[in-house]
């Protein structure tokens, strides 16, 4: 049986659930980012209960674990990007493999997202998260392995491909299940926990971009620069283990409720907006550092520029939802941040190099705001939590799956032309399309 702490948390959770759909959510005096409130397991019967903990200290320990999990969800993308030229040259990677390595993890975010609620119904969300962290740790350890040592094959490419794929699958599961746990376990601290969780994800990308190249410089080996990111994942795995194993397993079934989002024009407009922002977001993680280095910026400085860009993404992601929710509709803000992001990308490739910090800052602030605005539409365009969960699943599956074509096209254009200039034209087009669909999805209408 659940103790008194969990019983009270369950009551607070149900109270919080009643006011989350259709716009802003307030807990105390804090405005919660609506994107952190979508519970992927909301359609399940019996309803998923809060995590079993033994008291306030155990609940605080759980909160630390969830934030630390978030702190491992983006370093996979930015760490490889930071040393991509060294990996390519020293490992002798063919051109096609570079494109695959930057595209596959994003594609898997969309492919594995629908699997997360299915696994949670069978094993429980906490145990699925534990398995995901184990898979992430294994993938990070596998990435730099020389296949000739363990499999009799030549080169690093097989391990890089398998390790990167494992990381993408693990992150997909965490992306879907973590927001629901934050919502169920901390209904009385949603503002604090939502802010810490989303900030940790952005910080993960910034740390990967800023520290990977200095580790390479200090050790002289790109393998060690990538291996170092398995350490924080392994630490979180150990910390979260006692929480996950004490959870009981309850067989639940899915009873679908809410609007069929796949037949809604509004849902498709929001999803296409998500696709376009994902194309720019993950292209930034994968290619901004190589773009800067091709323009003559040294590796350490390029890493700092990307890290600074991501820090500004944090600011955008924190303030944009509150601003968007205050408007009667979101047409203006969606259009502005889409144009900011596209312009920042184009100028980072084609603009004067002496103003690169300005262009990267414009890109970071725009991209953080753009991502937050797209996710905020999940709540602002739905009337109930069930429809919001279905729209979130549609946006993640289609958004990440199709959005990964952005990194693919950048890689193919660079491989075909030997320059990132065509990618500048691509982002000009993507930014304009994002502005168009941001305007359309920003109209004050509801799914269904």
Rg from Cα: 21 Å
CATH class of the largest domain: Mainly Alpha
Total tally of structural domains: 2
Strands of the widest sheet, in order across it, are 1-2
The gross shape turns out to be globular
CATH topology of the largest domain: Growth Hormone, Chain: A
Largest sheet: 2 strands, antiparallel
Question: What CATH architecture of the largest domain do you see?
Answer: Up-down Bundle
Question: On the 0-100 scale, what is the average pLDDT?
Answer: 85
Task: Name its key features.
448 residues; Growth Hormone, Chain: A; 74% helix; 2 domains; two-stranded antiparallel ribbon; mainly alpha; disordered N terminus
Walkthrough of the structure:
The chain is 74% helix and 2% strand. Strand 1 (25-27) and strand 2 (30-32) form a beta hairpin. The relative contact order is 0.16. The strands form two sheets. The protein has a two-stranded antiparallel sheet with strand order 1-2. Strands 3-4 form a two-stranded antiparallel sheet. The protein has 448 residues and is an all-alpha fold. This is CP family cyanate transporter-like MFS transporter.
């Amino acid at each position: 049986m659940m103790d008194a702490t969990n019983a009270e948390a369950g009551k607070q959770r149900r109270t919080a659930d009643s006011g989350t759909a259709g716009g802003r959510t307030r807990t105390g005096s804090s405005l919660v980012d609506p994107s952190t409130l979508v519970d992927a397991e909301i359609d399940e019967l019996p309803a998923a209960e809060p995590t079993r903990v033994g008291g306030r200290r155990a609940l605080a320990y759980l909160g630390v674990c969830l934030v630390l999990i978030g702190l491992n969800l983006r370093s996979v993308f930015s760490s490889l990007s930071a040393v991509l030229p060294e990996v390519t040259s020293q490992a002798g990677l063919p051109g096609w493999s570079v494109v695959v390595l930057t595209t596959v993890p994003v594609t898997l975010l969309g492919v594995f997202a629908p699997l997360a609620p299915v696994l949670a119904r069978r094993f429980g969300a906490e145990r699925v998260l534990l398995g995901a962290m184990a898979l992430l740790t294994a993938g990070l350890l596998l990435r730099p392995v020389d296949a000739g040592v363990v499999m009799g094959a030549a080169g690093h490419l097989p391990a890089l491909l398998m390790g990167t794929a494992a990381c993408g699958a693990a992150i997909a599961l965490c992306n879907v299940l973590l927001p629901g746990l934050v919502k169920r376990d901390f209904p009385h601290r949603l503002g604090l926990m939502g802010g810490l969780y989303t900030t940790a994800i952005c910080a993960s990308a910034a740390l990967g971009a800023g520290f990977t190249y200095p580790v390479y410089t200090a050790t002289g080996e790109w393998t060690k620069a990538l291996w170092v990111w398995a350490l924080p994942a392994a630490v979180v795995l150990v910390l979260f283990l006692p929480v996950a194993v004490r959870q009981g397993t309850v067989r639940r079934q899915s009873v679908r409720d809410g609007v069929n989002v796949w037949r809604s024009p509004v849902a498709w407009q929001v999803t296409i907006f998500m696709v376009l922002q994902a194309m720019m977001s993950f292209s930034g993680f994968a290619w901004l550092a190589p773009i800067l280095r091709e323009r003559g910026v040294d590796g350490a400085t390029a890493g700092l520029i990307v890290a600074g860009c991501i820090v500004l993404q944090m600011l955008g992601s924190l303030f944009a939802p509150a601003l968007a929710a205050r408007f009667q509709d979101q047409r203006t803000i969606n259009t502005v941040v889409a144009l900011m992001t596209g312009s920042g990308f184009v100028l980072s490739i084609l603009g004067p190099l002496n103003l690169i910090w300005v262009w990267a800052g414009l890109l970071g602030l725009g991209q953080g705001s753009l991502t937050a605005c797209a996710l905020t539409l999940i709540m602002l365009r739905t009337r109930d939590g069930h429809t919001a969960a279905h729209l979130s699943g549609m946006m993640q599956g289609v958004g990440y799956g199709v959005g990964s074509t952005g990194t693919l096209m950048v890689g193919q254009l660079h491989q075909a032309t030997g320059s990132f200039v065509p990618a500048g034209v691509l982002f000009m087009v993507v930014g304009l399309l994002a502005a168009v669909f941001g305007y359309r999805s920003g109209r004050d209408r509801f799914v269904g």
